[in-house]
Structures are given as structure tokens and as C-alpha cells.
Structure prediction request, 171 residues.
Amino acid sequence: MSPDLRRWVVEQFEPGEAARFWVELDLDESLRFSPGLLVATDRRLLGLANSALSPVSLPWSDVGSVTAKEHGALGSLEVRTTAGQSHAWRYTVGKAVAVHKLIQQIEKLKQGIDDSEEADDTELEPDLPLPAVTKSFARLLRFTKPHVRMLLLGFVLTLLGSFFAVVPMPL
Prediction:
């Protein structure tokens, strides 16, 4: 988590409040890359809409439904309150797994289930950034999964072609 977002979270906490799960988002409302954050605490949901001036703070009693939808490489998390208000955050598909885990945690916290002893990844510790080359390669591998068979066939044919190019053929 970036130092600015970490500072914002610490400023928002009430005395005795603890974070249970958090997700760093990467798109704003106009689908431009911009940092944002959702934090599920033991008392409420805190949200910093990426480019919004005012943060969102919803006590668990006010949270109605929470849904996430992905379409292509974009995702949207929508929180509807019991009063009928709607709050939305956008993210890229790389954040989808974390967003769905957040929704599971929100449902547990709304029901009063606190499994913070089991969760070890909820502490607000800085992430260790991956090198840019590793990130790019990992993203490339995700897109190649549907084409693994064709890639393997191409690799095998390349090896065979290289082998026969080097081995002399008897005349």
C-alpha cells in the first residue's frame, strides 16, 4: 500500500478500530489509472473513491448488498446501502480475485463473524513490489493460457526444424 493511502487509512480509524481486509484499486470513475482503496474494518467499510474528494464510510448496519462484476479487463464493485444509495468503485481484472475476497469478508463481517485469527494477509503492511519485468511476464502468461496447446505445438515444431537444419541429410 502506498504511504499516502496508508496515512489516509490511519487517519480514518476510530479508537480501537481494526482493519480486517483491504483492497487497493487502480481505476477511477472515468476508467483512468488512479490509486484507490477499500478497507473492511471490524465496524465499517471505508472507501476512498480514486479521485473523489470525500471518502465513503459505511457502518455495517447501513450496508445492504455488495456486488462485483467483470466485463473484459474491467471490473466494478457496487455497494448499495439499506437507504437505497449506491457507491461504485472500478478496478482492472488483476484486482478481481482480491475484490471477491473482500466481498466474502464483508458478508462475514455483516453477519458478525470475525475470523481475523485465521486471516494473516489483512494487516496493513506494505506490499513488496514485483519487478516490472516479472509483472509484464505474469500478465502475458495469463493471456496465453487459452492458447497453450498451439504454443507447445509451435515450440516442438521449431525444435524439430532446428534439429533437421543442423543434421546433414544423406544424398
In short: The radius of gyration is 22 Å. Residues 118-128 have pLDDT under 50 and may be disordered. The first helix runs from residue 3 to 12.
